[in-house]
Amino acid sequence: MSKKVIPYKNSTESKKEQVATMFNNIAPKYDFLNQLLSMGIHKGWRKKAIRIISKNNPKQILDIATGTGDFAIEAIKINPEKVTGIDISEGMLKLGIEKIKTLQLQHKIELKLGDSENMPFENNTFDAITVGFGVRNFEHLEKGISEIYRVMNQNGILAILEFSKPKAFPIKQLYNFYFKYITPTVGKIFSKDASAYTYLPESVNAFPDGKDFLTILEKAGFKETKCIPLTFGIASIYIAYK
Known about the structure:
- By secondary structure, the protein is of the alpha/beta class.
- 46% of the residues lie in helices and 21% in strands.
- The relative contact order is 0.16.
């Protein structure tokens, strides 16, 4: 089981409530900081994840922790009937909905408030499910993974994009320095929420990545699990089937 890390150490709110508050706080600068801090690399990671699920020709796609909708928008390129995105942050969803309206994709993408650990969907609803940098924010990781399994169709495909902990020198050292010092400093300057970008490296460090996460997926019932390292191991795509 993963170690519990929370954004606001002195808060009495649950992790779920704190994560929602955090993303509401940073929502106006989220897309800008994502681009700045990742130097745009995250876009290629998303494209690769969508290419992988495209092999299943999914018609109904669910994007969990959809944020401002970038993963959902990328998924439209593989021509599904519909993409549904859920998130616990109203601030992020508001920006995502505006983005989708600007792109005139309202007929294909629906974003709604939703909890990954208690989703408002019937069993076996979705052909493919994506999660971009969201599973480490689940309050109860195993419960969230089991819920994903429940709403996925038989033979459906899951693609989870998440940060990893690189092992090789000198990437490991550079990565740790960047995440420990650069990310919180830049995040504080632009987002005005210092805790959010201190929580980011702490949550990545606490997340059971690699084989440990594959084990969690397998315990939930997923099969044919695999981990695809990205960019020297600083992130991974986890693939699994029901």
